[in-house]
Amino acid sequence: MTFHDRSIPNAPKPPATCVAVADSLSDLMKVVAIRSAVYLAEQACPFEEEFDRNDFCSLHLIGYRNGEPAACIRARFFADFAKLERLAVRAEHRKSRLAFEVVRAGIQICRRKGYRRIYGHAQDRLVDFWARFGARPMPDRPKLVFSDFGYTEMLIETEPHPEPITLDSDPYVIIRPEGAWDRPGPLDQSADRDVTSPLRVVQPAAA
Ligand SMILES: CC(C)(COP(=O)(O)OP(=O)(O)OC[C@H]1O[C@@H](n2cnc3c(N)ncnc32)[C@H](O)[C@@H]1OP(=O)(O)O)[C@@H](O)C(=O)NCCC(=O)NCCS
Q1: What is the reported pTM?
Q2: Is 94 in the pocket of ligand 1 (CB under 6 A)?
Q3: Is 90 exceeded by the pLDDT of residue 190?
């Protein structure tokens, strides 16, 4: 399993099995399709609760199997913790270990962004699943219920990433596409051009 970096110039086709950052409207449609199949269809979640108005402020990862978008997870970022949520693997792609790859990629990208505390709400039956990634139920928390399921608040406390993105990072690294911080991106290449500040003055339309 590889984490696919689409920012490589002339990138070859993504490997058939990989995890990639959603970076287009088409990718967001894949996320909506996966979560509709899993949460709306399987878990009878109402649309307004599944698509909770947080999808445009989230980082989404998509897991591919044989080229097919098969799994997803999203991350939201707060001052001192990240939250992983909406993990879903399409029923026909379960038991493939893709769930593990997608969760690991989610944790990895949070760590790279400097987060050491990753928070989540695990459906109660999946506490053991999340424990495999180092998540621990948070003590002394009241019962959490929403969308007709019981949830357990869990926290992953990780070691710092060896190369986190910080204010001391190369500024060109900081402006690379999300998750693709180790290769030059489009703006690295743009730095080869002279500073011409090509502002265009748009003339007002004649009355
Ligand atoms: C949860 C989910 C992502 C796991 O993906 P998966 O492909 O089924 O996972 P895997 O088959 O690779 O199983 C991983 C491990 O978790 C366990 N597991 C998976 N689903 C489980 C469940 N519903 N209850 C208990 N254990 C479960 C498996 O037994 C397996 O353990 P093993 O290695 O000892 O066999 C997937 O079942 C899913 O999308 N479910 C619906 C959406 C959902 O509930 N998301 C989680 C919200 S917190």
Answers
A1: 0.91
A2: yes
A3: yes
